[in-house]
Write a structure and sequence with these properties.
The structure holds two protein chains of two kinds.
Chain A lengths: L2 H19 L4 H30 L5 H5 L1 H21 L4 H8 L2 H13 L5 H17 L3
Chain B lengths: L1 H23 L7 H5 L2 H20 L5 H7 L3 H12 L6 H17 L1
The chains are: A mainly alpha, B mainly alpha.
Chain lengths: 139, 109
């Protein structure tokens, strides 16, 4: 078996264990659901932004009144509110490091959706940025 | 031109965060006028509200992965601005983190 599959299985097992432990914990689901949605919305907002940038060039009114841009804007706006709401349940020092997961996610998305390259430099760069953010955010 | 959009993006996010911190001191949730009449809060919202426009324009010039990696610079500018304008403390650990982020973004470029 490939080691990637083993790592995925271990993570999946751990996640399902944690989920089972908190089956009836409403606060847990609201808080962590919020954190996960915040990350996904941030990625989604950026995907929409890139799609718009690919079909427009330079500043124009059309560009920013485009339904896709308005959707991207709304997604990013709603993300802010969901983030604040979930911080009511999950402590900032716990939730904050999870936000840096958006960096590897964007790298993957840009590879699969926009044919951008994943080079060794970019993987290392992502690792540096993520660990840097963990250091900057005081715990 | 592209780099200008990135710089504006980081600057606006930073000022937005600093204004948000300035605003938070005067906010009392049970007294709505402390929210409505808070100039710092409006300045904060205004700064952050313009950011997506510049992100979008920057994406004309650069790949998504690079533009997003550049947002990491915020984690350097916000603590530095907080140090300069709000007199918050900077720890060695944070300076180390900033160095890591700069290296990371440089690897992307």
């Amino acid at each position: 078996m490939h080691y990637q599959a083993v790592i995925c299985l271990v993570i999946a097992n751990w996640v399902s264990q944690v989920m089972a432990d908190h089956r009836l914990d409403k606060k847990f689901w609201l808080g962590w659901g919020g954190v996960v949605i915040t990350i996904l919305f941030l990625v989604l907002g950026n995907i929409l932004n890139k799609i718009i940038a690919n079909s427009f060039d330079g500043f124009s009114i059309d560009r920013f009144l485009n339904p896709l841009f308005i959707l991207a804007y709304a997604v990013l706006l709603v993300r802010g509110f969901i983030w604040i709401m979930s911080l009511k349940v999950v402590p900032l020092s716990v939730a904050y490091p999870f936000m840096s997961l958006s960096y590897p996610l964007i790298l993957l998305v840009s590879y699969f959706m926009f044919d951008e390259a994943i080079t060794l430099n970019r993987v290392l760069g992502t690792l540096f940025i993520v660990s840097g953010i963990l250091f900057v955010g005081r715990r | 031109m592209g780099i200008l959009y990135l710089v504006i993006m980081v600057t606006l996010t930073t000022t937005g965060q600093i204004f948000a911190k300035q605003a938070s001191g005067g906010l009392v949730m049970s007294k709505p006028w402390t929210i409505v009449k808070n100039p710092y809060l409006f300045a904060s919202f205004a700064s952050i509200a313009i950011v997506p426009f510049f992100v979008n324009l920057a994406l004309d010039h650069y790949e998504l992965a690079f533009v997003f990696s550049f947002t990491g610079i915020q984690y350097i500018t916000v603590p530095l601005a907080a140090y300069i304008f709000l007199h918050e403390k900077l720890q060695i650990k944070q300076l180390l983190g900033m160095l890591l982020i700069v290296t990371g973004v440089w690897l992307f470029a």
